[in-house]
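Service request form, structural biology core

Requester: graduate student, group of Dr. S.
Request type: structure prediction, single chain
Budget code: on file
Notes: please return the result as C-alpha cells.

Sequence provided:
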Amino acid sequence: GAAPETNYGAGVSTGKTLIESGAIGKVLYADARFRWPGDENWHPNPAFLYQPGAGPLYDRGPYFLNALVDLLGGVSEVFAMTSIGFPTRTVTSKARYGEVFKVETPSHVQGLLRFQSGVQASLLLSFDMKCPYDSAIEIFGTEGSILIKEPIGFGYSVYLSKNCGDYEEVPFVNDLTGNIRGYSVADMASCIENGRKDHMAPGTRARHLLHIMEKMLESAEKGCVCKVDSPL
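Core staff response, request fulfilled:
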C-alpha cells in the first residue's frame, strides 16, 4: 500500500458519492488547482522542496492526482508545461531565516490529463503564485458541478451546483473529518487478518500516480503528449 490516503476523508468521499449517485449527470471535465507562494515562510528547512524529486508536482501532486484517479479512474495520457518563476528563494521561517537557496526543479506545473473514460482535466500546481492559498478540485458534469475544497485535508467543505445554480454546501457521507493519517495502514492490517483483497490504498495505484507525474515532466521536456500505460 501507499500514501496519500486523504481521499478517504469526508471531503473527497462525499464528492465520490455525489458522482456515483448521478448528482451531476455524466462527468465531462475536472479542474484541480494548488496555488501558493511557497513553503519557505513556514518550513524549518525548505530547500529540499525545491530540488529534483520534490517541487509542487511531487510534493502536493500526489494528493490531487490520487483524488482525481479515485473519482474518475485511470489516466491514459498527459500534456504539461513547467517553469521556475523565481530562480532563488529566501527562507523567512525562524530556524533558517535569511538563508538563500537555488531552485533546481520546476516550481510551477500546468498540465492536461485525459482519463481512460474520456474525461479531461486541467491540473495546476504552483509554488510561484503571489496570492492567497487556494486548493480545490472541481468536477463538471452534464447536470451540475461539485467543488471539493482542500483535497490535501480531510474535513473541508464540499459544494454542489445543480444546472448552473449557486454552490450549496452538502453534508458529509462519513465522519472522517480529523487527521486520519494511518487510516489505510489499519485497513491493510484488516486485509491481512481477514484475507481481504480490497486494500483501500494499493501500491498499484501509487505506481500509476508516479507514472503520471513522470510523464508530465517528460511531456514538458519534450513538448508532446505522453501516454501513461501503467494499470491501476
